[in-house]
Description:
mainly alpha; 2 helices; 76% helix
Amino acid sequence: PSGVPVATVAIDGARNAAILAAEILALKYPAIKHAVADHKKDLEKAAEEKSKKLAGLGVEGYLAQKGKQDK
């Protein structure tokens, strides 16, 4: 209803729900604010590493490697 803020996350999205909750708490608690900022930096580094790996493998190489891991 109007006036009731709602935040949604995906089914099986517990990690994203936790990040959302931490971001809300970070508005009041500086220690949580710093922890969230550090976590986001770590996520950025991981995404960059994955991007480099994908660029090196190419789409077909990535899918072939992923297929081997799924077995």
